[in-house]
Amino acid sequence: MQKDNLLIDKMLKAFDKAAYQSGKVLDPYAWWPINFLFYSPLFDEVSSRSFCADYLLLRKSKSLREIALAFQYPNAVWLALSRFISTVKTAKLKKRERMKIDLEFLKMMKFLMVGSVFCEDGLNIIWNKERIRKEIKKADWIDTRLNPNFAKLFARLHGDLLSLDEAVFWNAVCATRETHGPYPVKWKGSSAQLIVREYYNLREPKLLPFKTRFPYKAVTAYTIYNTKVRFDFPVLNDYTHNLSLVENTLAVFGFAHRGRNKEFLNEERLLFKVCEVIEKEALKISLWAEGLSEKEQVVESVKRVYYRMRPIYKLLGKKWQPSKSLLEKVRKGFPSFKPKRSVIKMTKERFYTMCDPRIDP
Amino acid sequence: MPRQKIILKGIRASYGLVEGKVVVIRTIKEFSKMKNGRILVAPITSPPWILVMRKAIAIVTDKGGMLSHPAIVCREFGIPAVVGTQNATRLLKDGMYIIVDGNQGKIYAKRQSSY
């Protein structure tokens, strides 16, 4: 019990860092195109009840390891957990059940990670030393001191990927992206560090109103930096660094999945083309999103809240999409709904009270 | 840091120190104003802004925090960013020469005579 309490305390601290201190809860611009948290009273009660019921149903037939593997990446689990942390109380579960769900999700993250699930040391370590050794060995590295344009082009690629991911997934970006590291590596005999950026689902037709011809399903970029750069990862995969990344890049390697083929990003012209294609797609999708009315943006953001839980629904053999009746409820409730007020009043104490599964609502 | 006048303060969102000319862009319709190597000043940025952000050497915004779009994208691009300055688009004008200090979250005016 003491161990459970300690884990819950750590989880709340991590959630505080990722959601409250970072400004996700209070900043209207923390999420694009809207901060869906402002509108959560419109759908939280229904969604949290259904998430909890479906998760408990799934637990009857699947082990935590099976569910973790369906989520694939720790950040995808964390994003699902973050829904439970903040809404599990509205599902009218008992204290012990609420704690159990939170602890199980933490356990699932542990299955998928090598380092601390709370990134206590500022690192997001997913791969073990053996995996790193293999990845380093098989990569066809481009030395950016010999080809400085590649450092710039990869930085452009990183920014472009992030923007496309945000354009498609809005508040569910971490359900399809994992930036991890830094892993200590050797580069030409000297100590260096590797950051891996995995965008493993750049296309999701069910979230878009139009057919897309975007050719890349996934893009992975490996970048080796010198040790002067200090990275700091909070629990989610957003990170900070203290020095210019372009200037401190030593080597890069990357590939894009086009259908079943891997396209290696080892030519300037190709990399430039990939960046252009990504930018064009990000622009097209974002213009659609920004052109929606506020009400329809809320409806679309609810879909993306459900999207975070799709591995659970897939294992249950159900569709992940929210019900039509819920979306209609959101549409009907929207005109008279006054957001922001409750969020502005959010204090740190209130935030903890809302999220701590040990405190009854 | 140079002894220059601080004209704006905000949140230090991405590391780096650069100086250059300002381009103020308020909406997507003004994207054509952007030129390579300029400092982009905007109310806030969002995914479509990637087209102008990639041309910028630094970004300053009125709104946003550490995890807002301009902050996370600038960290990936590796260019300095100061966000949440409240009134950058009002105080800074096209062609102004400024220094963006992403380490301190400060914007300095650079005198015409010094460049």
Biggest beta-sheet profile of chain A:
6 strands, antiparallel
Secondary-structure element order of chain A, as H and E?
HHHHHHEHEEEEEEEHHHHHH
Report the top-level CATH class of chain B.
Alpha Beta
Order of helices and strands of chain B: EEEEHEHEHEE
GO molecular function, one term (chain B): ATP binding
Keywords (chain B): ATP-binding, Nucleotide-binding
Domain PEP-utilising enzyme mobile (chain B): 35-105
Protein name (chain B): PEP-utilising enzyme mobile domain-containing protein
Topology:
The complex is a heterodimer of chains A (361) and B (115).
Chain A: H1 2-21, H2 44-59, H3 64-71, H4 74-87, H5 95-112, H6 129-138, E1 142-143, H7 148-169, E2 177-187, E3 190-199, E4 216-226, E5 231-232, E6 240-241, E7 249-258, E8 261-264, H8 268-291, H9 294-307, H10 310-316, H11 324-333, H12 341-344, H13 348-355
Chain B: E1 5-9, E2 11-14, E3 17-24, E4 38-42, H1 50-53, E5 56-61, H2 69-77, E6 81-83, H3 88-91, E7 97-101, E8 106-109
Parallel strand pairs in B: 3-4, 4-5, 5-6
Antiparallel strand pairs in B: 1-8, 2-6, 3-7, 7-8
Tell me what you see in this structure.
The complex is a heterodimer of chains A (361) and B (115). In chain A, 48% of the residues lie in helices and 14% in strands. Chain A is an alpha+beta fold. In chain A, the strands form two sheets. In chain A, strands 1, 2, 3, 4, 7 and 8 form a six-stranded antiparallel sheet that branches. In chain A, helix 2 (44-59) crosses helix 10 and helix 4 (74-87) runs antiparallel to helix 5 (95-112). The longest helix of chain A has 24 residues, at 268-291. Chain A starts with a helix and ends in a 6-residue tail after the last helix. The mean pLDDT of chain A is 92. Chain B is of the alpha/beta class and 115 residues long. Chain B has one domain (5-110): Phosphohistidine domain (Glucose Oxidase, domain 1). Chain B has an eight-stranded mixed sheet. The longest helix of chain B has 9 residues, at 69-77. Chain B is globular and about 35 Å long. The interface between A and B is medium-sized, with 38 and 26 residues. Chain B: Belongs to the PEP-utilizing enzyme family. Chain B: It holds the Pfam family PEP-utilizers. Chain B: This is PEP-utilising enzyme mobile domain-containing protein.
